Amino acid sequence: MRPFDYHRGTGIEDATRAAAQGSFIAGGTNLIDLMKLEVMAPERLVDINRIEELRGIEATDGGGLRIGALVSNTDLANDPRVRRHWPVLSRALLSGATQQLRNKATTGGNLLQRTRCLYFYDRAMPCNKRAPGTGCGAMEGVNRILAVLGTSEHCIATHPSDMAVAMMALGAEVEIVRASGATERLPLDDLYLLPGDTPERETVLAPGDLIAAVILPAPVEGRQAYRKVRDRASYAFALVSVAAVVAVEEGRISRADLAFGGLAPKPWRNRDVEAALVGQSPSEALFDRAADILLEDARGHGDNEFKIPLARRVLKAVLADLTTGAAA
Amino acid sequence: MQTSLTINGTARELDLDPRTSLLDALRHHLGLTGTKKGCDHGQCGACTALVNGRRVNACLSLLCMHDGDEVTTIEGLGQPGALSPMQQAFVEKDGFQCGYCTPGQICSATAMLEEIAQGWPSHVTEDLEAQPELTIEEISERMSGNLCRCSAYPNIVDAIRKAAGETA
Ligand SMILES: Cc1cc2nc3c(=O)[nH]c(=O)nc-3n(C[C@H](O)[C@H](O)[C@H](O)COP(=O)(O)OP(=O)(O)OC[C@H]3O[C@@H](n4cnc5c(N)ncnc54)[C@H](O)[C@@H]3O)c2cc1C
Ligand code: SF4
Ligand code: FES
Ligand code: FES
């Protein structure tokens, strides 16, 4: 690991100022891993763990929740309100990593964790994300875990988070404190950038910009599910995952909020898929049409081509589960 | 970086390079070699220790981030002659072969019983709001962060069930 200057942040302002030339560290479960490999080598680490304002889960006036950036994946999954009203979020969190890791992993860090692309991790390999301009080793290499949607000719990395997929389906927003001191609220969808020509830029955050909280809107009617398909039953990243909130009224789908993991460089939401479902009666043909729309532009790269038919099957299974028996 | 923390009940002051992981601090600077290094990347669980009562991977944590924390390692759970119920159960049920993963397994399992007692759900818990039960499926899921290259899993599960029976 490269040497760095360690700063224990005392407050939001102190931390954002200090991190202008460095990185925040929260749980450390992703950053320390990458620093050991020297894939990341910040000159300064700003430890935000002592900043009280970033802790706690509070009810909002609108009936939702404000989740502090430092809330651990464990505490969020266990929160009685989340378990009751946003079970898709508990389920997504519980499907991720292990209890040891969830105890340390934080809400902010989870959103900003880096891709698990093998070439990104291996400094001997070309990677446009780690070392812009060197090429993409994965494109014609081992890319079983990588993306089929939203990619570019420069990068096909996937975003590995489960939590973020559930938050995307729930329409979450992120509260950001810019290094300048300005506070902003963005839909989670707008936090992430697609790789395009600059795969090294993954979010709209600049150095020193802090995620302060995630805001969940009030719970909505409908049944919720998180379905994750992976290479082993536990302790593995998603190959494909679907977070869904689906409601049926009088035999017709009245809501289908869907987000996908494992398919794209960011947690993926496609409103056209949802629009095709809403107002229709559930049927296999309808679910196939939804999958057609989702996967219209999907493109595999050899190893990861299996994700395209897999995503179709997982989506159809989740929709079938959530609409069965819900019509009464 | 000056760091004050409590380790197995004893106050400690350390002034180490900020790059030092909690795991290396325990093993190399405090002589607590019970906590093991397997992968050093959060993938095996051999380094599991308890921080403020919660199990964590000591390899993915920097010592300097633990100022003021209370750390418990396998040495703090019990000692020869005064084993904890979980340590005793691992001995009685033969919950290991080479023993390398065992301190991590025991720290992890000790925390896990407490998590179940507190009603924490897991990925395999059917009803998120019900009190989870200590089934084999639950134990396997909740212990998936502790790999055992000798594959002593069946006896590890037996040991955990025995320890749970005795503490319940
Ligand atoms: C073996 C293993 C298996 C895993 N399996 C899964 C899995 O199945 N599913 C899954 O979803 N995840 C998985 N993870 C990833 C894990 O969820 C992430 O490492 C964790 O959520 C990151 O959170 P953290 O607080 O530790 O982040 P850190 O490592 O502290 O930080 C990560 C990044 O976020 C930045 N950051 C942190 N907090 C803030 C903030 N408030 N504002 C601005 N920037 C911030 C840091 O600067 C850093 O760049 C796994 C990890 C490991 C090691
Ligand atoms: S897919 Fe992206 S992260 Fe992976 S090697 Fe290519 S450029 Fe790097
Ligand atoms: S040594 Fe820490 S998880 Fe393997
Ligand atoms: S007993 Fe040998 S690794 Fe578990």
Automatic annotation (TrEMBL), chain A:
InterPro entries cross-referenced by the UniProt entry: CO_DH_flav_C (IPR005107), CO_DH_flav_C_dom_sf (IPR036683), Diverse_Substr_Oxidored (IPR051312), FAD-bd_PCMH (IPR016166), FAD-bd_PCMH-like_sf (IPR036318), FAD-bd_PCMH_sub1 (IPR016167), FAD-bd_PCMH_sub2 (IPR016169), Mopterin_DH_FAD-bd (IPR002346)
Name listed for the protein in its UniProt record: Xanthine dehydrogenase YagS FAD-binding subunit
Organism in which the protein naturally occurs: Limimaricola variabilis
Ranges for domain FAD-binding PCMH-type: 1-221
EC class (word): oxidoreductase
EC number annotated for this UniProt entry: 1.17.1.4
Gene Ontology MF, one: xanthine dehydrogenase activity
Keyword Cytoplasm: no
Keyword line: FAD, Flavoprotein, Oxidoreductase
SUPFAM superfamilies according to UniProt: CO dehydrogenase flavoprotein C-terminal domain-like (SSF55447), FAD-binding/transporter-associated domain-like (SSF56176)
Automatic annotation (TrEMBL), chain B:
Pfam family, one: Fer2
The UniProt record lists the keyword Ribonucleoprotein: no
Alphabetically ordered keywords of this record: Iron, Metal-binding, Oxidoreductase
The UniProt record lists the keyword Metal-binding: yes
2Fe-2S ferredoxin-type domain segment(s): 1-77
Protein name: Xanthine dehydrogenase YagT iron-sulfur-binding subunit
Record organism: Limimaricola variabilis
Lineage, top ranks: Bacteria, Pseudomonadati, Pseudomonadota, Alphaproteobacteria, Rhodobacterales
